[in-house]
């Protein structure tokens, strides 16, 4: 019916769609978190809740930075292979935690 709801942008809790007179999407933690979106219709509620402009911008920037790091590591592999391997491992750990 609707795309999957992203977690609450504030507490990371599960989100749910509901409402009686006005469609709303909110954090399942309710009053404990108070994150809520109340647009005109269910699809708009889901779209608004799932929109993460800052997150999308950060992901785009991260992708670009990964390209720069790849280029630098490729050059480093020729002169310092051990250091390059250590940096590769460190980056993999950071990306896994994302």
Keywords:
single chain; 98 residues; mainly alpha; 2 domains; three-stranded antiparallel β-sheet; 3 helices; 53% helix; 10% strand
Task: Walk me through the structure.
Helices cover 53% and strands 10% of the residues. With 98 residues, it is mainly alpha-helical. It has 2 domains: 1-51, no CATH class; 54-96. Strands 1-2-3 form a 3-stranded antiparallel sheet, with helices on one face. β2 and β3 (36-37) form a beta hairpin. α2 (53-79) packs antiparallel against α3. It is elongated and about 60 Å long.
| Secondary-structure class | mainly alpha
Mean pLDDT: 76
Tally of discrete structural domains: 2
The residue ranges in which pLDDT falls below 50 over 5 or more consecutive positions are none
Q: Nearest-angstrom radius of gyration?
A: 20 Å
SSE ordering: EEEHHH
Number of helices: 3
Helix content: 40-55%
Per-chain topology:
Elements lengths: L14 E4 L5 E4 L8 E2 L4 H9 L2 H27 L1 H16 L2
Antiparallel strand pairs: 1-2, 2-3
Helix pairs in contact: 2-3
Summarize, please:
Helix content is 53%, strand content 10%.
